[in-house]
Amino acid sequence: MDRTSAMKPRAEMVSIGIPELDNVLGGGLTSNRSYLLEGTPGSGKTTIALQFLLEGARAGEGGLYITLSETATELREVARSHGWDLEGVELFELVNEDGLDPDAEQSILEPSEVELGETINGVKACVDRVKPKRVVFDSLSEMRLLAQNSLRYRRQILALKQYFSTRNCTVLLLDDRSSDPGDLQLHSIAHGVITLEQAAQDYGTERRRLRIVKMRGVKYRGGFHDFTIETGGVSVFPRLVAAEHHSPFPERQLSTGLAPLDQMLGGGLSAGTNALFNGPSGVGKTTTAARCALTALERGEKAAYFLFDEGKATMLARARAMGTNLDPYIERGDLRVVQIDPAELSPGEFSSWVRSAVQNDQVKFIVIDSLNAFLQAMPGEKHLVLQMHEMLSYLNQQGVITILILGQHGIIGEVRSDVDLSYLSDTIVLFRYFEAHGEMLKAVSVAKSRTTSHEATIREFRLSSGGIKIGEPLKDFEGVLSGLPTYRGITPLLASETAAAN
Question: Which domains, and CATH codes, for the chain?
Answer without folding.
Answer: 10-239 (3.40.50.300), 244-501 (3.40.50.300)
